[in-house]
Amino acid sequence: MTIATANRALAGVHVLVVEDDRSIGEQLVRGLSRAGCRVDLVGSAAAALAHFEAELILLDLGLPDGDGIELCQQLREVTSAPILVVTARDTEHERVTALDAGADDYLAKPFGFAELLARMRAALRRVRTEDTPTTIGHGPLTIDLAGQRVTVNGAEVTLTAKEFDILACLAAEPGRLVTREEVFDRAWDTHWYGPMKVLDVHIAALRRKLGDASLIETVYGRGFRLRQP
Ligand code: CA
Prior knowledge:
Layout: H1 3-7, E1 14-18, H2 22-34, E2 38-42, H3 45-50, E3 56-59, E4 62-63, E5 66-67, H4 68-78, E6 83-87, H5 92-100, E7 105-108, H6 113-131, E8 135-138, E9 141-144, E10 149-152, E11 155-157, H7 161-171, E12 178-179, H8 180-187, H9 197-210, E13 216-219, E14 223-226
Parallel strand pairs: 1-2, 1-3, 3-6, 6-7
Antiparallel strand pairs: 4-5, 8-9, 9-10, 10-11, 12-14, 13-14
Helix pairs in contact: 7-8, 7-9
Bound molecules: calcium ion.
Calcium ion (CA) binds at residues 20-21, 60, 62-63.
């Protein structure tokens, strides 16, 4: 994965930077904006509590109007957004205290910007995985994404890995037309240069195994959609 691809994970993410040192704060805002984030910068604990709706919070512990650890606890009570503590205090005790106060990660100053971005991506990945449903129910279908199992009216159907990936891709948004290209992107390695017709072979097998050919609708020349139950 290139850095550019990786940073797409941060595009549009709303970040709150809590930092009372103006020059550090502004440097962070510039860098994060370049990475595609929407950034709010505040310099006090009081202002941080008024801006907690961000998707990710970078928190400096040494603030003029209160202790960062206490602020971390207060923020944790009102938001589930990842909190990354960014601070010059770097003893094991400080790190443990911050993590116990609800911080998700801890980065000691001075730090490299690439590492900060990587830790932000990792924190967001964890949140997004927790938010993702592990089972999709759709009419007679139940798709267990974690266990990679599919049942139709309660009876388990044995699918190949490829058939499973295709079905999971269609079931992520039932009723929406999923283009052939999207299915390829999701179910195949992005460097697949073989014939696209192979997709029709898998779809045919999938329909047969699901026992109801009309569950997967073909939108001629475009792609497929999972019929609304
Ligand atoms: Ca400070």
